[in-house]
Amino acid sequence: MRRAAFWIAAALVALGVLAFAGMRIPALQDLGVRWAIERLASTAPNALYEDDALRVLVCGSSGPLPHATRAKPCVAVFAAGRFFVVDAGIGSWNRLAGWRVDGSRIGGVLLTHFHSDHIGALGEYDLQTWVAGRPGPLAVFGPPGVERVVAGFEGAYALDTSYRIAHHGSDLLPPEAGRMEARPIRGPATEARAEVILQEGELRITAFPVDHSPVTPAYGYRFDYRGRSVVVSGDTVHTPTLIEAAAGADVLVHEAQANHIVEIIRETAQRAGRPRAVKILSDIPDYHTSPVEAAEAANEAGVGLL
Predict the structure, then answer these.
(1) What predicted TM-score, i.e. pTM, was given to this entire model?
(2) Where does residue 5 rank: exposed (0-12), middle (13-18), buried (19+ CB within 10 A)?
(3) Which sequence positions are flagged as catalytic?
């Protein structure tokens, strides 16, 4: 029995050595790379675009502070053969690209407000979905001021865009399709009510005001499609306008900040003699929702899933 175990162990070690040595051979390395690429290419998530349901993909869930594995805020909603992105947090396009989401099928970007962690990847969404074959300009919805945000990103990417057209040709990358179109949403800010911002067939997208003061206006969005509904809160405190807009929704994607943990970090920063961090950590609890408040909002709205 011992002899058999010895020879099994020896064989496993020998196989490990051979595998390690084999992967040092360029031809075998290329074979492994080819296998991985072909596997990825054959498993694109096309089911996301099937027209029988409304689908939600969280492509970014961190806050402004650095995080090693999570992208900044982003929620992708799939409906009617396209996808719409609520907020374009830094790193979120990489998430979608890593999941092999077809960028050419983007329907638009909907910004809840203009904090940097919600808009930082907007230029990448424009560039990458254009390169993927987006047929026309990228619609960017948001509060008044979205025109400035769009113009700023277009200016920052202007040289890059010109290089790519010069390299790949305007037949592949039509300049007119590489633009963004700012679509400011004005109604909710002035009338404190929801406003339908897109109605295409059975898909309806509604913007509604939320309270992220002093950031004003700030919006959340509701998607309705074929009897299903999902609401994305954006950054907000517990507010009646969100509860009204989310009434009866199937899914509510609600921001949440664990303020008791924020307080622990603030106390630690104070003991460490870091007054700037103390000031910021003292300020942020008053314009976010706690997890308990998010649950309360979901219960009040009668949503199916938080």
Answers:
(1) 0.88
(2) exposed
(3) 117
